[in-house]
Amino acid sequence: MKFSQQLYESVKEIWEQTHLHPFVDGIGTGDLPVESFIRYMKQDYVFLIDYSKLFALGAVKARDLDTMAIFAKLLHETLHGEMELHRGYAARFGITRNGLEETKPTPTNLAYTRYMLNVAQNGSLEELISALLPCMWSYWEISKMLADKYPQASAHPLYGDWIKMYTSDEFGSLAVWLIELLDQLTEGKSARELVLLEEHFLTTSRFEYMFWNMVYEGEDWPV
Question: Is 126 a catalytic residue?
């Protein structure tokens, strides 16, 4: 069994709960309240600012030029593709780019990004990938699941663009590249080393669920 498959099996129950979350399902049905989506969009935008830094650190830790180039592409696609989707949505709601960038991250958002950045800055390239991978991989899985479950989802006037972004061949190919790179990097690793990577993958998979729940419940700082 490839290590990525082992990781997938280890978080299967968490991902199943994530896929069934009412926020996620609401994107597919089109019934998600607009206010919830706006909250998500703003929080995810500031999340992506930090998430982009992980790809920059991946380029720093890369061991060859080809790997550096793909991490640079991931950085570019996040800054100018994924975040442009958010900027487009913001414009539809009358939110300026400055308004997006001035969003204050919630406690869950801050804890999630700081965990990944700490792993990325202090750990190996394998650790960096294992920490950031649940976000990309699960978004790809979620979007495909919603598109299959709700065939008209991609045509929705609001949420259709979200579905199309994350089911795209471009996004999927980059997620697959990360999965395959992690499998390559973990060949011959000791059980002790793999346990650490699995712990990062498990932790950030839990954070993914918490992020969806955070924006659905309207979490904010209590004081």
Answer: no
